[in-house]
Amino acid sequence: MCGIIGVIDRARKAMDGSLIKPALSQMVERGSGEGAGYAVYGCYPEYRECYALHVFFDAIHENKKAVDDLLDQWGKVVHEEQIPTYEQPNLRKVHSPWRYFFKPDPGLMSWSPTPEDDIVTLLVMRVNTERKGALIISSGKDMGVFKASGWPEDVANFYRIEDYQGYLWLGHNRYPTNTPGWWGGAHPFNLLGWSVVHNGEITSYGTNQRYIQSYGYNCTMYTDTEVVAYLFDLLVRKHGLPEDVAVKALAPPFWDEIDRMPEKERLLHTAIRLTYGPALMNGPFAIAIARPGMMLGFTDRIKLRPLVAGENGDRLYISSEEAAIRRMDPEVGEVYMPKAGEPVIGRARI
Amino acid sequence: MSTIGALPPRYRVTVDREQCMLCERCVENCPYGVFRIEDGRLIIDSRRCTACHRCIALCPRDAIDIREHPVDYRSHPVWTREAREDIYNQARTGKIILAGMGNAADYPVIFDRMVLDACQVTNPSIDPLREPMELRTYIGKKPARLEIRRNDGGEVELLTKLSPNLQLETPVMIAHMSYGAISRTAQLSLARAAKETGTFMGTGEGGLHQALYPYQDHMIVQVASGRFGVDINYLERGAAIEIKIGQGAKPGLGGHLPGEKVNGDVSQTRMIPVGSDAISPSPHHDIYSIEDLKQLVRALKEATEWKKPVFVKIAAVHNSAAIAAGIARSSADAVVLDGFRGGTGAAPKVFRDHVGIPIEAAIASVDAKLRQQGIRNEVSLIASGGIRESADVAKAIALGADAVYIGTAALVALGCRVCGNCYRGLCPWGIATQREDLVTRLDPENGAHQAANLIHAWTLELSELMGAAGINSIESLRGNRDRLRGYLLDEGILKVLDVKSVGA
Fold first, then answer.
1. Does residue B207 contact residue B264 with C-beta atoms inside 8 Å?
2. Beta-carbon neighbour count of residue A163 at 10 Å?
3. Which residues of chain A lie closer than 8 angstroms to B123, CB-CB?
4. Is B58 a member of any domain?
5. What CATH number has the domain spanning A3-347?
6. Residue A339 gets which letter from DSSP?
């Protein structure tokens, strides 16, 4: 059991972290104090052209040089600094969070249609697979992930999350079951612009992970959630599927329904299932996923995990619990429960 | 006169004379001539017995008993009974020893050393009685990615054209067993069962008998090295075409059909003379390389206007993974892997027991190789050879197969007792024979019902296994090796299977 929450302001009006913190803490029963985290979009406007790499270092004086060298080989670090943290009595600081604002040199992967993204993906995969005292936990532009082992409130205070401003926030409160509670295992998981928070357990993980691996994505976090970020990256960024179609690949309609669809639609959904069968995610899950300018929530095909959505003007909220949404926005208008496998999508208008 | 003398009988048949009422059913039913009546007394010739159990099944008084190896040799761990008897046999005949059914050597069965997973607490198991459970499987080429466009109206348009695929309602298919190797009634039974359960059946290398035309939409027609029965009519009737390069029971060899089994009808369907041995060449004489295979695949597609999937079947051998990758790039739609436990009507014993590799390892290495090359989902993988129960199907799929073929299991559903004398053409169950009085012992109506029952039962069990694992669609079981654990398998094989040990 875990708690997830997300909010997007479709007019890109900034919200600071003090909004989401109490909402996530509201779902205290959904966590166990072993992991919590936040993703915020629009938080680094002064470096919006750079990839913001958030890194967890162990023994930073020993291990940082290798990452510095690797980044220098593949591009230019425009700015770097320690991520400010503030000691909390209930949270043990086991890693040193650091951030780089990085510009890859596209000439180094000239064969790729998206050289910058591919270089950053390669660096993330390499650093996280080698696991030499460094873990890149987020790598998108003008966004960042802040997470640690602890209760949502402590993690928020540790990073002083209210000091960050953004038009889109995700939050996650973890109750780990399959894998140990460690900093890297806390959500959100991120790759490039994609961030994922997830409640559930993906029973098809073995299939999904092997599928995604054959496209060069290595799963390194000992947990099933990261595969979601990679699947979206493959389907949407590399294969160019619209997000709603990607959701139909990951949580497709049942054959019974497909058989009853009109010809054109039936062919489309058959093609999706045939082509992306290994990407189908089984098992109970509710997921909120974000990329710059967009937030999306969906559940598994038979909705074995809760997901509610709420709207208030430009704001779209998704969460495991209505109470958390109401905590964030007592004035929220319509609150509804999306159907199994049906995506809720919010896009920034500008 | 040989210096060896008579060997001890393989089986000892005894009749409880108090129970026996001399109804003579055993006499009528045993085509091997174990029983005869002389002067009102039942005489038994145990040496002729194959343990086919026909007499046991039909004895109204349960009076018959059959014991294997009633006479012991001096026991020896190296010089087993089998080793000694094979030598006696070959010293006498100077010939290759023929055998039927699958590998009978005492290798550990990997399926039996793997266990499946189930959900507890953290994720709910899914109840197939109350929730949808999808076993539908498509066999054929899949695109690597979809091209999709949103038109001006915001509607999603599919630009990719799909290749023809077979739609299976269950991932269990019936293997290629030719008309000739098995009887008309056996083929009819299986064809009806395939149709009824929404799956497919192979014709084997024996052509397509007219009686099977009504089921042709559920038949996969085979093109093997002897090209028996192949013409355009045959190719066009099949739902798919399968090129047989090799089979698990005898990798490196072609098919053997003894002339005794080639009667008028078989000869016509196969397009060969009556009574002639049908010995298919070991290689296809037009395939001496992977490029040649590609040409045949494309020639068959061209002949059938690219409307049918073409499969390529190989025996599981050491280098299957690389071979399968080559096949996957030949325009073939599916690779069929036949493991060394695959059955056969007739094979040299030395091949049956010593050549090839187990299907479990072959699936794992082929699936891994195709993934490494990024083409796994573009081609289907059908596994066969020693699938005995639904758990084997689940494990084969979890290792990476799309579907399985069952041969022996399907025959057992018709009554076969796995006596292994198929090559003699005297099958008392009417399965592996062409003798009319034996053939008609198998009623296709009943046979179809039984074979369909088996597939249906396995399908139900598969649904339950999937539900327990929290999976409601077969594609999420496929290649999901995380849901398998090896039990007392060594590190080397665990690595090949890419499966963790129990407890890990």
1. no
2. 12
3. 200-201, 203, 283-284, 304
4. yes
5. 3.60.20.10
6. P
Quote the pTM value.
0.94
Q: Which of B95, B113, B137 is the last residue of a domain?
A: B95
Strand ranges, E, within B217-354: 219-223, 240-244, 256-257, 278-279, 310-315, 334-338, 347-348
Give the up-direction half-sphere exposure of residue B28: CA atoms within 13 A in the CB hemisphere.
9
Q: Which residues of chain B lie closer than 8 angstroms to A247, CB-CB?
A: none
pLDDT of residue B1: 64
Do A210 and B126 count as a contact with CB atoms less than 8 A apart?
Answer: no
Residue B53 has pLDDT above 80, yes or no: yes
- Specify the residue for token string 């929404």: B198
CB of A214 within 8 Å of a chain B CB? The answer is yes
- Model confidence over A276-320: pLDDT tens digits? 999 999 999 999 999 999 999 999 999 999 999 999 999 999 999
Domain spans of chain A, in order of start: 3-347
pLDDT at A221 over 90: no
Number of separate domains in chain B? 2
Catalytic residues of A: 2
For B394, the domain range is 169-501
For chain A, give the number of residues: 350
**ipTM beyond cut 0.95:** no
The one-letter code for the residue type at B257 is L
Provide the shortest C-alpha distance from residue A201 to chain B (in Å). 6
B496: DSSP letter: H
